[in-house]
Amino acid sequence: MHASLRHFNKMTIMDMLYYASPAYGQLVVDSVTAQMNSKYKRFLHHHPGTDPPLLDCHSSRLSNDVGWNGHVSIFAHSLGSVIAYDILSHDAGALSATGVQFPGLEFPVENFFAAGSPVPVMLLSRGQVELTGDADTPLLHVPSRPRCAHYFNFIHPSDPIAYRMEPLLCEGGTSTPASLSAIFDPKIVHGMSFSDLYSRFTSTTLATATQAPTCVDYYLKHQTRDGTSRMMDVAYAPASHKSYWISQDVVLAALLQLCRPVGEILQRYDVAQVPRPELRPRRRVSFTPHKSVLLATTALARDRITGTWHNRVVLLANKHVYSVASVKDLAVTKSWAVPLASNSTTVVPVDDVGFKVATSTDAKGTVLHAPSRDDRDAWVDAIRARIGHKTKAVVNCDGLITNQSVEYFGAVKTSFLTQGWSTKWVVLTKSHLTAYE
Q1: What is the spatial distance between Cα 74 and Cα 343, in angstroms, rounded to a whole number?
Q2: Which stretch of DSSP H or E encloses residue 26?
Q3: For 65-69, 234-238, 401-405, which range has the lowest pLDDT when averaged over its residues?
Q4: Global confidence as pTM
């Protein structure tokens, strides 16, 4: 336990002491600010403005405003929250009391999430906290506030580094911070829709924001331990300080806050009694076996956000280029294939729901059964319509190292049919009838 605490002190307290020195502090501020500005510019470069028009519910017409108009959020942990707080609370070119000059961010920040944050202690140690009020009701006050619309401070009760922020920033703040475990109680939120969960979370934050409009403290769940609770809190201090990264409540709270613009738009649709728009990922189109794929191969693809390169499977179609992570995500095992030639292929019904496909080289043929008579007739008609056509659908699979197939693309018709005692995925293309395992 002593070794763990020593390592914990080295990773937290010593880093804060380095940052407190002007030389290292200037280096850290310059580096962090430059990296955030660079990532923001990179994001704008790859997202130059492709937002679809939105319905203006107040005027019942479409808004033609285009361009990326989203919000930027910062999630910071431990010393990172101190660095982010300092950057957000200083204008570009401003000097701190220790002589650190702040370059300034090139974008506004909507949400600032701080986890395991020692910001209050750092502000007190720097003398940045003022005492206001009178002798009977003294109040602590921080004149320099972070430039952000929403400030969330996540605190684990056993984390010795994390402190409350509301008493310093918000006059008349709550005496007890909100509890994430109470808001996201599994017995209450299990099975909730997004809109209900969003309403539950925002009603709590808005109720708190009535008294504290610029910040909110949130407590994580505290595991009560009978008997030697103080000793156990000391032992679990390192784990508590890192617990934010694996806390489902923290992730859910941050995601709901990030989704606030979407929730507000949906609420406006409901108030205006206008049908909600269909939500779907941008820059994505449907990708089915009915797409005509000309080439399937492997390639290095660059992530548009991080700039890193990854091995991907790329499929070239007539109008789009599709990308998947692995060939295993789309390749299937071929069982058999029958070429559809007018002089050698026949298809006839054999019973109420079955039909037989035979060739000149296989007179016995293959018998398949559909779920119903109508399905059987549809398959027979579709196969007969393709027999005799000279059009071929060939997928060039150059570069795909696999013993499986992606030749089902360009499908005319697909469904699961029964062959004997097994079920096959049967695909009718322009030139073949193929079964896959």
Answers
A1: 68
A2: helix 22-46
A3: 65-69
A4: 0.61
